[in-house]
Amino acid sequence: MSQAVGSVRAVTDVEPAERVEQLRAAIRHHNRLYYELDTPEIPDADYDALVRELQQLEEQFPELITPDSPTRTVGAAPSTAFAPVVHRVPMMSLDNAFTSDELVAWGGRLARRLGELGESERSVGLVAELKIDGLAMSLRYEGGRLVQAATRGDGRTGEDVTANVRTISVVPHQLPAGAPQVLEVRGEIYMPIAVFEALNRAQVEAGQRVYANPRNTAAGSLRQKDPSITASRELAFWSYQLGEVVGGPTLASHHETFDFLASMGFPVNPEVKLLGGLDDAYAHCMHWQEHRHDLAYEIDGVVLKVDDLALQRELGFTSKAPRWAIAYKFPPEERTTKLLDIMVSIGRTGRATPFGRLEPVFVGGSTVGVATLHNQDQVKAKDVRPGDVVIVRKAGDVIPEIVGPVLAERPEGLPEWEFPTHCPVCGHQLVRPEGEADHRCPNISCPARVAGAIEHFASRGAMDIEGLGEQRVQLFCSMGLLHDVADIYSLRAEQLRGIEGFGEVSINNLLSAIEASKGRPLANLLVGLNVRHLGPAASSALASHFGHLDRIVAASQDDLAAIEGVGPTIASAVREWFSDPSNRAVVEKLRQAGVNLQGPAAPELPQNLTGLSVVVTGTLEGFTRDEAEAAIKGRGGKSPGSVSKKTTAVVVGADPGASKLTKATDLGVPILDEAGFVHLLDTGELPPAADTGGPVAR
User: Fold this and answer.
1) Is 277 contained in some domain?
2) Which of 176, 315, 385, 696 has the most CB within a 10 Å radius?
3) In the listed set 465, 500, 517, which residue is the last one of a domain according to the structure?
4) Are 475 and 482 in contact (CB under 8 A)?
5) Are residues 137 and 234 in the same domain?
């Protein structure tokens, strides 16, 4: 394992605000690995635990909630390798249930919401769909012709992968006569199990590394820059939802949507089922939990949706998920195998992560040979020892973990494993900072840290240097060509000639990719600098606010912490990183190499909404929901999710939430259409014709 396995564990003596920052940093890190890089480090179960802990803290301390919290956003930022696509209708994620109690709790929330809408006596049907373990996809047709395919990305902006999706045989290129003028179809791209197994057999025969699981392999196959590679992977697609539709039929129910999709030539999963209620739904989930491996493709749960489309619209959305749907996720699968050894990997931040080397075992859909043990405390708490038979859990078909030993099978006299005192790579003494669960190698020159940091700098979520992956970074470091990230820009063709695998074409391609990376946005550079806790969202916030790297370097910790989306933990890490002379030397080398240090110009917006509270409901033509909220906050106003006596105005678009409109009317809150909203943004005043039942309080 060349990189540390990220994890954040609950610490009882950490202040809530600090713990929230820790959790957000970890979740954003894992979001980037999962959604952008297709290389998750931790099981779904561990990720879900981080999210749920964050949700609980935000519920307990609502003053810590921020609009960009992972509990209120979707997915991760799209890759810079593909052109961005702005979704006209946001692609939301789903809330999860892991037990029957959580499923019942969702049903209770649904019933209460329906009661508020006057639907309490009405029987609500549910549609059950298998939760395909693949990659969410949006297909856009205009005039019956496929014009665009895009990944979900962060829910608002995805990646344009049209050329690759055109190679998937089951995706229609042309719709039949009578198709809507505009039709956006959403679904899941996946790799059938038989295709995945055949691909891995070919990898073994060629002496190449096998792929981990169908989901990540499908995502990686789709994100190839060469569509012919995607075509060779035999990907498939199930359709399950409509996005934007212009000129389409009037549909009353979700299950009618599947009939319409099938009539247009889209693949529809045959296991979609209309259910009578939650009792039927739970039995349906249990059936597929038991029979998940009877299918020719991987699933990791069942999705339940309210069938009535009008009710869906009335129920509406939270900041990231529909209230009318839930994903019941299957529990992790477990197997037993022998623990051959416990070893420690060193990651790019110096984190020392113990992991177990196992007798290979098939679990969670793939053969597992290593599993994480997280940190010293986890090894001690689980009391696993080399030579034990251990329980291995693989959750969500990602990195497996060792749950614990089978004590009845422990050989007599088996010694306890001791965490090493020194780095296994450079020999430097490991340290464990007070209040933290992880040991770290503090030697910034440690070969493992250097190589990991350079790999991260060149990765797609940072400077996106194609052709500079893990193997080449390791090779260049071993040859003494790279000592820090800035050395990338000193590589020359004459240094690479003669190295096995480097012909003139590959040399030119690599150097061209390095040259192109000099123009990446400042936010990407900040991500690439490997500052602990600093992820894409906070990097963008810093770049936008300060406008140049030099101003970030010069900023005080208090100035940094004051930026929305940064906070004290990230600010401290940023200040510490730029206070290190060796890091500042790297920045100077980057400057001399011509790397862009300039950020976007900060928009100069009038603060004419200071003290005002504006609620947005429904779909606006000229703004996404996030853009409308940003326009309000950028002018000093607030944009809460609910209507109260303190609300200045409610902006109403298409398909608004009925409860917000009702409450606004009852309270005499002014109601604005989109034109009135634009007037408010421009002037800071309500338009003369605003439908208002009371005075405006500033």
Assistant:
1) yes
2) 315
3) 517
4) no
5) yes
What distances in angstroms separate CA 71 from CA 52, 560, 606, one per listed residue? 9, 23, 30
Give the tens place of pLDDT for each residue, 550-594.
999 999 999 999 887 788 999 999 999 999 999 999 999 999 999
Sign of CA dihedral 580, 586, 591, 592: positive
Instruction: Extract the tokens encoding 571.
Output: 């600010």
**Per-residue pLDDT at 7:** 41
CA-wise closest residue to 541 among 518, 556, 522, 568: 522
CB distance 145 to 66 below 8 Å: no
Whether residue 221 is found in the same domain as residue 303: yes
* Integer Rg of the chain from CA: 26
- Please say whether the dihedral angle defined by the alpha carbons of residues 19, 22, 28 and 31, taken in this order, is positive or negative: negative
Residue 418 within any structural domain of the chain: no
21 shares a domain with 110: no
Partner residues linked to 138 by β-bridges? 150, 186
The DSSP bridge pattern shows strands 96-97 and 236-246 to be unpaired
Which residue, of 409, 431, 459, is where some domain finishes? 409
Whether residues 470 and 344 fall in one domain? no
Q: What is the DSSP letter of 119?
A: -
Token pair 């619209």: residue: 313
Q: Using one digit for the tens of pLDDT, what is the confidence trace for 402-426?
A: 888 888 789 999 999 999 999 999 9
User: Which helix (DSSP H) or strand (DSSP E) does residue 123 occupy?
Assistant: none
In a domain, 476, yes or no: yes
**Does 77 reside within a domain?**
no
Active site residues: 131
pLDDT in tens, 464-493: 999 999 999 999 999 999 999 999 999 999
- What is the rounded distance in angstroms from the CA atom of residue 222 to the CA atom of residue 242? 21
CA angle 75–77–79, rounded 5-degree value: 120
**Cα four-point dihedral sign 143, 149, 153, 157:** negative
Give whole-number Cα distances, 147 to 178, 218, 459, in Å.
17, 22, 29
What is the residue range of 464's domain? 447-517
Q: Which pTM was predicted?
A: 0.47
* Residue 438: DSSP 8-state: -
Structure tokens at 690: 């605003």
Contact in structure between 414 and 405 (CB atoms under 8 Å) = no
**Pair (94, 209) in one structural domain:** yes
